[in-house]
Amino acid sequence: MFLAKVVGTVVATKKHQAFHGSKLLLLQPLVAQEQTLVPSGGSVVAIDTLGAGQDELVMFTQGSSARLAAQTKDTPVDAIVTGIVDRVKFEGTNLKPGAHMG
Question: Which 3 state secondary structure label does DSSP give 65?
């Protein structure tokens, strides 16, 4: 599993039939660095089965693990939101998205 910030949504009028009725989120993966969470590279599109919103901190998983969830079984999905995070504690410090993350 990975941590990410929800930075947007993806709208696709033409998509695989398994995605109809599913919300697609644009995620910015994060890593812990100097007591804060900072972007770790490119963005990821993930299926949202939990109702995450803009700017929320989420956990997501990728690859075969994403296809094992009940909601995505037999679906051509590579990433799924698996949790909405309340807080992250690392080495005794509560981490928050960096100032430049919003």
Answer: helix
Tell me the per-residue pLDDT of 29-72, one tens digit each, with 9 for 90 and over.
Answer: 999 888 788 999 899 999 998 999 999 999 999 877 666 666 66
Q: At a CB cut-off of 8 Å and minimum separation 6, what does 89 contact?
A: 95
**How far apart, in whole angstroms, are the C-alpha atoms of residue 18 and residue 44?**
19
Both tokens of residue 87? 């807080």
Domain count, the chain: 1
- For residue 79, the domain's CATH number is 2.40.50.220
Write out the residue range of the structural domain in which residue 35 sits. Answer: 2-96
CB 37 within 8 A of CB 27: no
Q: In this structure, what token pair is assigned to residue 21?
A: 């009725």
pTM to 2 decimals?
A: 0.84
Question: What whole-number distance in Å separates Cα of residue 70 and Cα of residue 29?
Answer: 23
DSSP single-letter state for residue 78? S
Beta strands in 49-87 (DSSP E): 57-62, 79-84
